[in-house]
Amino acid sequence: MIYLIKDNEFDKLVFRCIFRSSESEIIKLLRNDDYRIRTFAAQTIQLKYANKKNFDIVVEMLKSKNYRDREIGAYILGQFGTPEIPFAMKSLNELNKLLDDKVFKVLTSGICSIGHILVYFSKGYKFYG
Fold first, then answer.
1. What is the domain count for the chain?
2. What's the whole-model pTM score?
3. Which secondary structure element, helix H or strand E, spans residue 17, and what is its range?
4. Which segments in the chain show pLDDT lower than 70?
């Protein structure tokens, strides 16, 4: 499962460093071998670099043969552009394609991300993407 930030100083320091990284550095970190680094990079994209170019990059990751790319891509789309979620409808369409994935981590990441988007819908947010 995707690593969540815990209340420890090392994780906070690493996240702060990654959050200050450039957009191109963040894209590279999405494929880091350490799942914590990938997750912090994904959270940075969700909050700071949610644009059309990166949306397209993440969608391409969903098509990768590497399950880690698909898993982190699904994770990103669930809250891409928080709090506005500018690509919500397109994200749902892409995430639905993962529901047949044979890798449990990818499947659960996709389902959780669909759930995140549906929560926004249920709260009355209007989506335009």
1. 1
2. 0.89
3. helix 9-19
4. 1-7, 126-129
CATH number, position 25? 1.25.10.10
Cα–Cα distances (Å) from 94 to 20, 81, 128, in that order, read: 29, 16, 16
Task: Extract long-range pairs of 113-120: CB within 8 Å, 24+ residues apart.
Answer: 113/74, 113/75, 113/77, 113/78, 113/79, 114/78, 115/78, 116/78, 116/79, 117/77, 117/78, 117/85, 117/88, 117/91, 117/92, 120/85, 120/88
Residue-number span of the structural domain to which 96 is assigned: 9-122
Per-residue pLDDT at 7: 60
What contacts 36, CB < 8 A, 6 or more positions away? Answer: 3, 11, 14
